[in-house]
Amino acid sequence: MAKNNKQNKNQTMTTEEAGRKGGKTTAQNHDQEFYEEIGQKGGETTAQNHDQEFYEEIGQKGGETTAQNHDQEFYEEIGQKGGETTAQEHDQEFYEEIGKKGGETTAQEHDQEFYEEIGQKGGETTSSKYGEEHYEKIGKKGGRNSGNGSNNN
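Now predict its structure.
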């Protein structure tokens, strides 16, 4: 009788259990190349069946879910990792190029008031961070360099 109960349990396997069992079997029978190939095919099919709005919507949902599940420390950590990886893969020319593009785009999208506002904020932040001594020091240094430069002309 115990045997029959065991057989009945196997016959009434849940969908979740069947999926897990099938996944394990597939993983044992296939390599990374197989998964890359079916992933590529799935991506191409999805791209054919959906428009940009679809991707924006699922990206938005994914971003909201990620934000709910993670704190600032998580974003700082992945930002740090991404920055390090980018730095390893690119040279100074890359950074100059993207900086120039960013600067041009910002200049097209913003007016003088924007630059005055961010300059003000930057000045206030620097002032509170370094204090009056910092400005005296760089002022003296600038004055000396300016004086030296005028003697050379």
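Residues 1-7 have pLDDT under 50 and may be disordered.
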